[in-house]
Design goal:
The protein is an alpha/beta fold. Helices cover 37% and strands 16% of the residues.
Length: 495
C-alpha cells in the first residue's frame, strides 16, 4: 500500500495530470452530480436474462472521471482489497486514454470486467472515497468506471495482456477456477511460474459461472477474462476432482512445488425445520447452478428445473436476490423474499435490492418459515410463517430477530429456494488429514501469507472465509501468490 502511495506522489505530478487538474476547478468538479448507470426497463428485463446494467458511454465516463479530485492522499485505495491504482485509471479515463485505464486495472486485478459488475464498491473503495468521508456526497462511481474501461478495451479489439516474467519452469497447481484461484493464477504467471488450474466442473469460472445469473454477470464476460489468463500462459484442466482424479501426492510426483486451494463454499445450509425434504424445495446453489451453468432457462436444453408460479426465497443476501429475480424470469407470478430481519439489515447489495423492487419482487421482512406442507404427491404447497421483531444487536452487529408468539400464518407456495448461507466444500479437508481445519470447516491459514498447516498448500476465498465477496476472494488470491512466491524462493535457496 505504501509503495502505491509513494508512486502516486510522483505520478500525480506528471504534466498531463497537472493539466487535467487545472482544466476544471475543484469546486466545479465537486458540483457535478454522479452519473446514473443506464438500465433496462424493469417491466421487460424481469422476463429475460439480458444484462440489466447497460454500462456508461464514453461521454458519461469522462464526465464522471472529471469529478475525481486526484487527492494527495487517495483513501479510495485503502478500501480496495486488490489495491487498484484508482486515481491513475480514473485520470486516464478523464484524459480519454481508455485502453491505458484498462491496462492499469489489470496491473493488480485479474478480473476488472467482473469486478466492475458484481463487487460491492459501495462498501469498499467508494465508501473510503473523499466524497463519502469528507464531503458527505455521492462518491466517484469507481465501479462504473472500472466496468467502462474493461468493456471499452474488449470492444476495441485491442485487448492488452499483462507482461509475464521469463519462465522459471516451476510448476504451481491452483485448485478451483473461481475468483480466488484466477487471481492467484494471474499473479503467479506474471512471476514466471508454470501455472495449471484444476477445475472440478465442466466449465471454468467457479462461482462466477454457477452462482451469478446472466442478467448480472454474463458468462461471456467471465470467459473473456479467463482467455487473457490463457494468453499469459496459464493452463486449465476441467473435470478434475482433487483427491479423486489425482491426489496432492500424485501432483507432487508430477513436479508441482506448491498448491493454492480455492475450492469455495459450495455446501448449502438448510434450516432443519419440518417438511424441508418435500419436493420442489431447493438450495440456492442447486437452483442457480441448474439455470446458470446447465442452461435450464434455455428451451433447447433438457436440464430439469421447477418453474413455479408462487416462489418463496428464504434469505436476504445477494444469493437470495439472485434466486428470486431468477424465479421471476422463469415465469413466477409471485416471487417473494422472506427474511427474518428488516430491509435495513439485509446483507444484499443496495443495487440488488433496488433492482428486485423494480422487478416486482415481493418482500416479506421480519418473517421466518417454521414449517412446510405438501400435497399427496409430496410436493410443497404451503408454508407456515412466523412474524419476527428485532432485539439487541448480535455478533454480526445487526439487531437479533426474535419470534413473536402466536403470530404464525400460512401462505400458498409451490416452490421454495433456500438462500440462507453456505458452508465450505469438505472435499479437500476430507482427503488431507494433516490440514488444520476450523470448527466451521474452513481451512486455517496464516492471514499474512495464506499458508496452511501443510507448508506447500496455500488457500483463500470462501474455503477460508466461509462465504465472501468476489473482490475479497481476489485479494486472498493475490496475497497467497505473494506468500507462495516467498515460500518457493526461500526453499530454492535452501536447496
Amino acid at each position: 500500500m505504501n509503495e502505491i502511495k509513494d508512486y502516486l506522489k510522483e505520478e500525480r505530478n506528471q504534466p498531463w495530470r497537472v493539466e487535467l487538474r487545472k482544466s476544471i476547478k475543484s469546486k466545479d468538479r465537486i458540483d457535478r452530480l454522479r452519473v446514473h448507470m443506464p438500465e433496462a426497463d424493469p417491466t421487460i428485463r424481469n422476463k429475460n436474462f439480458n444484462e440489466v446494467n447497460k454500462g456508461l458511454d464514453p461521454e458519461q465516463a469522462v464526465f464522471e472521471a472529471g469529478r475525481c479530485l486526484d487527492c494527495a492522499n487517495p483513501t479510495c485505495i485503502d478500501g480496495c482489497p486488490v489495491e487498484i491504482n484508482i486515481p491513475k485509471f480514473i485520470k486516464q479515463i478523464e484524459a480519454g486514454d481508455f485502453n491505458g485505464a484498462a491496462a492499469t486495472l489489470k496491473e493488480t486485478n485479474s478480473l476488472p470486467a467482473v469486478c466492475g459488475r458484481v463487487c460491492p464498491q459501495e462498501k469498499q473503495c467508494e465508501a473510503t472515497c473523499f466524497y463519502s468521508i469528507s464531503l458527505k456526497k455521492d462518491p466517484i462511481a469507481i465501479g462504473h468506471l472500472e466496468r467502462f474501461a474493461a468493456d471499452y478495451e474488449r470492444n476495441s479489439g485491442n485487448v492488452s495482456v499483462p507482461v509475464v516474467d521469463k519462465s522459471n519452469r516451476i510448476k504451481i497447481a491452483i485448485i478451483g477456477s473461481g475468483p480466488a484461484g484466477l487471481a492467484c493464477a494471474g499473479d503467479m504467471a506474471k512471476l514466471g511460474y508454470h501455472v495449471t488450474v484444476f477445475e472440478a466442473l465442466h466449465e471454468l469460472g467457479g462461482v462466477l459461472k454457477y452462482g451469478i445469473p446472466e442478467f448480472r454477470l454474463p458468462n461471456k464476460i467471465v470467459d473473456l477474462e479467463i482467455d487473457i489468463l490463457k494468453k499469459m500462459g496459464v493452463n486449465f484442466r476441467k473435470n478434475f476432482i482433487i483427491g479423486k482424479t489425482l491426489t496432492f501426492d500424485n501432483l507432487r510426483e508430477q513436479g508441482f512445488k506448491a498448491f493454492f486451494v480455492g475450492s469455495g463454499a459450495g455446501n448449502p445450509t438448510f434450516m432443519n425445520i419440518p417438511g424441508e425434504n418435500y419436493n420442489n424445495i431447493f438450495s440456492s446453489n442447486e437452483y442457480l447452478t441448474r439455470v446458470n451453468l446447465m442452461n435450464a432457462a434455455d428451451i433447447e436444453y433438457d436440464t430439469p428445473v421447477i418453474s413455479g408460479k408462487n416462489v418463496a426465497v428464504i434469505g436476504g443476501g445477494n444469493t437470495a436476490m439472485d434466486s428470486v429475480r431468477t424465479a421471476k424470469r422463469l415465469g413466477a407470478d409471485r416471487a417473494i423474499i422472506i427474511y427474518r430481519r428488516s430491509m435495513e439489515e439485509m446483507p444484499a447489495r443496495v443495487e440488488e435490492v433496488k433492482h428486485a423492487l423494480e422487478e416486482e419482487i415481493e418482500f416479506m421482512n421480519l418473517h421466518n418459515p417454521v414449517e412446510y406442507f405438501a400435497d399427496e404427491k409430496g410436493r410443497v404447497n404451503k408454508m407456515r410463517i412466523q412474524k419476527m421483531k428485532l432485539g439487541e444487536p448480535d455478533s454480526s452487529g445487526r439487531r437479533r430477530p426474535i419470534p413473536i408468539e402466536n403470530s404464525e400464518f400460512n401462505i400458498e407456495i409451490d416452490t421454495v429456494i433456500l438462500g440462507v448461507g453456505v458452508s465450505p466444500n469438505p472435499l479437500i479437508p476430507g482427503v488431507m488429514p494433516d490440514l488444520k481445519i476450523s470448527k466451521w470447516g474452513t481451512i486455517e491459514v496464516n492471514p499474512e501469507t495464506m499458508q496452511s498447516s501443510v507448508e506447500d498448500i496455500f488457500a483463500g476465498g470462501d474455503i477460508v472465509r466461509g462465504g465472501a465477496t468476489v473482490i475479497l476472494a481476489l485479494g486472498d488470491g493475490r496475497l497467497a501468490a505473494a506468500g507462495m512466491h516467498k515460500y518457493i524462493s526461500e526453499k530454492v535457496k535452501v536447496n
